[in-house]
Amino acid sequence: MLFLAFRNLSRQWVRSGMTLAAIAFGVAGLILTGGFIRDVYHQLAEALIHSQTGHFQIARDGYFHLGSQSPEKYLIKNPELLAARVRQVPDVVDVMARLDFSGLLNNGETDLSVRVEGIEPERENRLGSYVRMVAGTQLPVGDPHGVLLGKGVADRLKLKSGDPVTLVTNTPEGALNTIELTVRGVFVSAAKDYDDRIVRIPLPAAQEVLTVAGATRLVVLLQQREQTDSAVVATRALLAGNGAQPMEISTWIQLNDFYTKTVNMYDHQFAVLQIVILVMVMLSVANAVNMSIFERTGEFGTMRALGNRSHYISRLVMLENCLLGATGALIGVVLGLALAVLISWIGIDMPPPPNMSQGYTAAIRVTPGILGSAFLIGVCATVVACVWPALKVSKKPIVDALRQNI
User: Fold this and answer.
1) Which residues pair with 105 in a beta bridge?
2) What pLDDT is attached to residue 16?
3) Are residues 272 and 170 in the same domain?
4) Do residues 239 and 388 both lie within one domain?
5) Residue 117 confidence (pLDDT)
6) What domain range includes position 341?
7) Which ranges of the chain have pLDDT less than 50?
8) Three-class SS string for 152-195?
9) What pLDDT is stored for residue 22 in this prediction?
10) Angstrom distance (rounded) from CA 229 to CA 45
11) 280 and 344, same structural domain?
12) What's the rounded Cα separation, in Å, for the pair 267 and 273?
């Protein structure tokens, strides 16, 4: 039967070629679309991780839910010792302390409410590969009174590199305190909202103006994003015995609600696109199969008159289309891979997505899962499209089928 199926397909090479093209282009379209969306996920995740949150963060229990209003109540005592312990966890590249608080930034004429991060400049420079300086430089190591401004803050206060500013905040005891700073640079990160309100100063300067010791959170950098879950499990085990300061861990996904919503939106859109392509392939194949079966009705009648059962005819038709679907899907996979490599080499210039401050160059990020699902969709669509025509022709009376030869 397999040899007969191959012979029948090669005999009708024009129609078989048209069907193969429909399947191949459908499969290639699925691969390109899936690879593009996968790259969007990757670029967005890496931008958020390497400009803001790191792979996961450690804080006092309750900080991530309640600490934004009063971060000084959730200070980590001796963050250096805790960071040194966490650096021993496998796959951890670095751990950096941050001290968060709110304040007023004054340019000599007006005030602006800002969110301040006290950071360790050398370690943050290693993390922030997606932070782009639009003016000035990163905070120099050892600079006690430098400040980095998000672009939105700099634009609203009309500040540039080298300008003096004053930061005003309340200490935990309720006293008003100020510190004189000098703008060292202006940056943009992955999120515009973040850039519109963030100010970064050295950690010692933040501790000085708040008159506190410690930090509010530790930011952990890993070698790869895929190592997050295993590193979190190992870190939780490490912190389990820290009864004096109960700690909680939030991963980059938990800290970035925007990412989760974006992934959900694109997943639904891609599912609809898969259904559309599946229907298009099914209709194309069904049309070709119906035409082929109509022209071969007399042939099938002769086969049944020679003693072949109806189920043999239906199995033959379905086998032919299985071979057709597998061949077309394989061609589509090869075509999709070739186009993915070409498009990725050229690059796709993308404008800034919603809530983002800068565009990026997209690529087609193909994974084995995308290739496998596209291949299966191509084969399944072809097989499903031929089921009804195969059953219909196998049930046709022999006499009526033989009349097609006249």
Assistant:
1) 112, 167
2) 72
3) no
4) no
5) 92
6) 2-47+259-405
7) 2-6
8) HHHHHHCCCCCCEEEEEEECCCCCEEEEEEEEEEEEECCEHHHH
9) 81
10) 15
11) yes
12) 10
